[in-house]
From TrEMBL:
<dbReference type="GO" id="GO:0016757">
    <property type="term" value="F:glycosyltransferase activity"/>
</dbReference>
<keyword id="KW-0808">Transferase</keyword>
<keyword id="KW-0328">Glycosyltransferase</keyword>
<dbReference type="Pfam" id="PF13641">
    <property type="entry name" value="Glyco_tranf_2_3"/>
</dbReference>
<keyword id="KW-1133">Transmembrane helix</keyword>
<protein>
    <submittedName>
        <fullName>Glycosyl transferase family 2</fullName>
    </submittedName>
</protein>
<dbReference type="InterPro" id="IPR029044">
    <property type="entry name" value="Nucleotide-diphossugar_trans"/>
</dbReference>
<keyword id="KW-0472">Membrane</keyword>
<feature type="transmembrane region" description="Helical">
    <location>
        <begin position="422"/>
        <end position="450"/>
    </location>
</feature>
<feature type="transmembrane region" description="Helical">
    <location>
        <begin position="387"/>
        <end position="410"/>
    </location>
</feature>
<feature type="transmembrane region" description="Helical">
    <location>
        <begin position="361"/>
        <end position="381"/>
    </location>
</feature>
<feature type="transmembrane region" description="Helical">
    <location>
        <begin position="42"/>
        <end position="68"/>
    </location>
</feature>
<keyword id="KW-0812">Transmembrane</keyword>
<feature type="transmembrane region" description="Helical">
    <location>
        <begin position="80"/>
        <end position="104"/>
    </location>
</feature>
Length: 463
């Protein structure tokens, strides 16, 4: 067993250091007039999207010489292809290998150890205007296989409906407790931190209010914590509508597949703020979640990475959440996520001025891949246009088949495990997810630079 990794008491944690550095320069953004920032924001976004599309088209039409083995294997020959064809091979190879790695990881995953009892697990469920969906998380946790589980619902002081609903559960369920977040109100991170401060269990877990937790997940995670610090589960949106189906396949492609190979190479594994069980010592080693971060889970993942905590994924037991129910909610939610990614990148770059280890230097590069990878994804659209115009559109079948095939395989797997209903035909449109998401990502990055003032977007639930 690897020894537990915790930062020395004399050394500031990654989270504490980052928060100190951020506060030192936070006021600069507000000095510029709002109207000028909005104009610059719109101009920069349109200009950047246009530049990416044009550059992608011009680059896609350029030719490149590729060395290939001769038919008899006696040497190397060469062929000339356009770069748009090479992009097809790149996308197909990346997602194809990622799919093989994912299914291989799921195949060798051992989940036979599922104790019914053991160390107490405090399952924190932060809620904000979630009264209509709270039953999903609370009831699925109580129905799970792990008995030594305590559910702590943390509500915001101004959310009377959620407080009342949570108290109804607490009145009839001995294992449910309600906290009103009067100590750190205003954020999910603050709610989780509050619950951690007033409880003393050996293990902490965090779940979203609208999450249907796999009944085996907590017990399997507790067993895995014998050999690691944090266990992260898999979560997918329920594909029960058009927008919800888009959200599901987006999660499959950009969540399950896109960073799979990178995780294998760098050992960076996402530790989020839902479907996660961790040792209390790990949570305390990074000072918990950062209330000032728009995407507290993404920042938390990098805090764990820099603190050298051992994070493992549990992929075979999938939980489900509500997907966005409208296009506006889909766009707003993703823009919030990607703005948070840009904020996290800003913090990581700032922290690089005082590197502590190689992970401090590697972390910004990994984060930058999430932020600037959207430029690459958008450029694929114009590269596809090159192939159509040049009469070589058949090459597009390669990446389309790879993306759609991987999405179909995961949908069939989820359906067989009873996590989603049926298969449908939505997987055929999976390749469209990449350019749509890239537009949101570029919009969020530009907005972070020019107009973002800390505003928060909240989607409708229980609709």
């Amino acid at each position: 067993m690897r020894p537990r990794n915790a930062l020395p008491s004399t050394s500031p944690s990654p989270g504490r250091l980052r928060r100190t550095l951020r506060r030192a320069g936070a006021a600069a953004r507000t000095l510029r007039p709002r109207s000028l920032r909005e104009a610059a924001d719109a101009t920069a976004y349109v200009g950047l999207v246009a530049a990416v599309v044009v550059a992608g088209y011009l680059q896609g039409g350029m030719t490149v010489v590729v060395a290939v083995p001769t038919v008899l294997g006696l040497g190397l020959g060469s062929i000339v292809v356009v770069q748009a064809v090479m992009a097809c091979f790149t996308v197909s190879g990346m997602f194809g290998c990622s799919a093989l790695a994912l299914f291989g990881q799921r195949a060798v995953e051992t989940t036979d150890r599922r104790p019914a009892t053991g160390p107490t697990v405090t399952a924190v469920v932060p809620v904000h205007r979630d009264a209509e969906v709270l039953d999903r998380s609370v009831e699925s946790l109580l129905d799970g296989h792990y008995e030594d589980l305590r559910v702590v619902v943390v509500a915001e002081p101004d959310d009377g409906a959620s407080i009342e609903r949570a108290r109804e559960y607490a009145a009839r369920e001995e294992r449910v407790e309600v906290l009103v977040n009067t100590r750190y109100p205003g954020s999910k991170a603050g709610a989780v931190n509050y619950a951690a401060e007033v409880t003393d269990s050996e293990h902490l877990a965090v779940f979203d209010a609208d999450e249907r937790v796999d009944p085996r997940f907590v017990s399997s995670a507790v067993a895995r914590l014998d050999d690691c610090d944090v266990v992260q589960g898999r979560t997918v949106p329920e594909p029960d509508g058009l927008v919800e189906t888009v959200a599901y396949y987006e999660s499959v492609v950009l969540g399950d597949l896109s960073q799979r190979l990178l995780t294998l190479v760098t050992d960076f594994t996402m530790a989020a703020s839902r479907t996660v069980v961790m040792r209390r010592s790990a949570f305390e080693a990074v000072d918990g979640y950062d209330p000032e971060m728009l995407t507290e889970d993404y920042a938390f993942a990098f805090d764990c990475y820099e603190a050298d905590l051992d994070v493992v994924e549990l992929l075979s037991q999938t939980s489900t959440i509500e997907g966005a129910h409208s296009v506006a909610d889909w766009w707003g939610q993703r823009k919030r996520w990607m703005t948070g990614y840009a904020q996290t990148l800003h913090d990581l770059l700032t922290e690089c001025r005082s590197p502590r280890n190689y992970r401090t230097l590697l972390a910004p590069l990994l984060c930058a891949g999430s932020v600037f990878g959207n430029v690459f994804m958008l450029s694929l659209v114009s590269k596809a246009a090159v192939l159509v115009v040049s009469g070589a559109a058949t090459w597009l079948a390669l990446p389309v088949a790879t993306l759609a095939g991987a999405a179909l395989a995961l949908r069939v797997s989820d359906a067989r495990r009873g996590r989603v209903g049926g298969v449908g035909l939505g997987w055929l449109a999976t390749p469209l997810v990449l350019p749509l998401y890239s537009l949101v990502g570029i919009r969020a990055a530009v907005a972070y630079l020019f107009t973002w003032d800390g505003e928060w977007y909240s989607v409708a639930k229980g609709v």
